[in-house]
Amino acid sequence: WKLLPTMNSQLSVCKLLTHWNSDLTLVDGTKECIYFVGNSLGLQPKMAKKYIDEELDKWAKTKNVFESYIRAMGIKSPLCVCVCVRTGAKPEEVALMNGLTVNLHILLLSFYKPTAKRHKILLEDKAFPSDHYAVESQIQLKGYDPKRSMLLMKPRPGEEVLRTEDILDTIEKEGDSIAVVLFSGVQYYTGQLFDMAAITKAGQKKGCYVGFDCAHAVGNAELKLHDWGVDFACWCSYKYVNSGAGGLAGAFIHEKNALTVKPALTGWWGHNLKTRFRMDNEMDLLPGISGFRLSNQPILLVCPLQASLEVFAMTSMAALRNKSRLLTGYLECLIQHYYNKDESQPHKPYVHIITPSHPEERGCQLSLSFSVPIAAIFQELEKRGVACDMREPNVLRIAPVPLYNSFSDVHRFITVLGSALAASKELQQ
Which EC number(s) does UniProt give (predicted)? Predict the structure, then answer.
């Protein structure tokens, strides 16, 4: 279950934290730091540096580095096949290319075809900012007003996550005016795992295209993009897929759309490989997502992705999800036991979990809100060698990633959290 030997040691996190906070006097140098921020940047695979050095060496010696593109350029490449296994797609439905937001724009250019009657895009009110901006700009690009064409879903008053029945009800009521339903697979702030199958079925029943930003879902949840009939999807690879900051992203178009939805922008890399080098400027467009590729993949970004996917190939998403349910459940249990609100101790700081408690409605992330300001808690955790993620206004995102985190990490975190809460309380007094 624990594949840490294939990932760089968590002790390196101490070095990383020194760039953020010079006060690390409370770090126990005999123990590994606790890295619970894989939902933002995954640990570095140990083979990543080796593969990058190999390519740099080939380049320095003027070898034909173009041959290395075979790793990522074709649908039969090991990288593409491994990504398909992680996303539940067919090889011809997936391409590795660009960055996440670039891919989202490219896909929306083709899937968002607004009309006077059907011009809205349905998404979460608190979608990740880049998704919100992409949707807003695509609506404006097509000559529509985001105030009328962006349909934003909010949780019910007093609630923190969206109910599936409310999403389906909105699609049923508004579906005739919706061109595209676009949700995240896992909501970045709350950690909610959406019912992608149900949303896809409901949206398509009303004549909408349905797509997902799977940035927080790939490598975290079991996906079945093909079987669910999802029209399109895109994702980054530097979170749970551990390819490094700015890593090579991915995109998916279901085979049913391969011949009917064509790219609005074309490039040489979307040309059929069999005729590409004729250089006759007569486009022989590949069907489906392969035709959406504009240019070749940067080989230095391919290398760490290859290193990471080799680690994933040692296990399965079913095994990782099994551990994830137990690992995240263990964290939830300990938080509720030690840090729940206690009416008999009104001055005791407490923690509230906003992520859904049902294991099938979340990945490995728990989003925690606190009864006290989180900035001091975050700093105290850093001082003690805990890497996590703070999100305004009052949430710490904690992600025990099953690929490399352990139950011991969770237990130690609970102890360290107690010390951080106590220290932050003293600072406030």
Answer: 3.7.1.3
Q: Look at the block and give the residue holding tokens 């919100």.
A: 132
Neighbours of 63 (CB within 10 A): 12
How many C-alpha atoms does 213 have within 13 Å on its Cβ side?
A: 28
Contact assessment for residue 95 and residue 77, using Cβ atoms and an 8 Å cutoff:
no
Q: Are strands 209-213 and 232-235 parallel, antiparallel or unpaired?
A: parallel
The single-letter DSSP state of residue 270 is: G
CB atoms closer than 10 angstroms to residue 177: 19
Instruction: Quickly list DSSP for 334-391.
Output: HHHHHHS--TT-TTS--EEE-S-SSGGGB-S-EEEEESS-HHHHHHHHHHTTEE-EEE
Find where tokens 């703070």 sit: 390
pTM exceeding the 0.70 threshold for the entire prediction: yes
Q: Going by DSSP bridges, is the β-strand pair 178-184/209-213 parallel, antiparallel, or unpaired?
A: parallel
Cα→Cα distances 170→43, 119, 147, 188, Å: 39, 15, 17, 22
- The helix (H) or strand (E) run that includes residue 398 is strand 395-398
Show binding-site residues for pyridoxal 5'-phosphate: 100-101, 128-131, 184, 213, 216, 238, 268, 296
Low-confidence ranges of the chain (pLDDT < 70): 1-30, 62-78, 426-429
Residue 352: predicted pLDDT: 95
Q: Which residues pair with 232 in a beta bridge?
A: 211, 253
Please name the helix (run of DSSP H) or strand (run of DSSP E) that holds residue 147, with its range, or none.
Answer: helix 146-149
Find, among 114, 9, 68, 27, the residue nearest to 306 by Cα: 68
* Contact assessment for residue 46 and residue 404, using Cβ atoms and an 8 Å cutoff: no
Binding residues: 100-101, 128-131, 184, 213, 216, 238, 268, 296
Q: How many CB atoms lie within 10 A of CB 348?
A: 14
- 154 by Cβ neighbours in 10 Å (0-12 / 13-18 / 19+) ranks as exposed
Q: Which residues contact 322 (CB under 8 A, 6 or more apart)?
A: none
Rounded CA-CA distance 95/295 in Å is 12
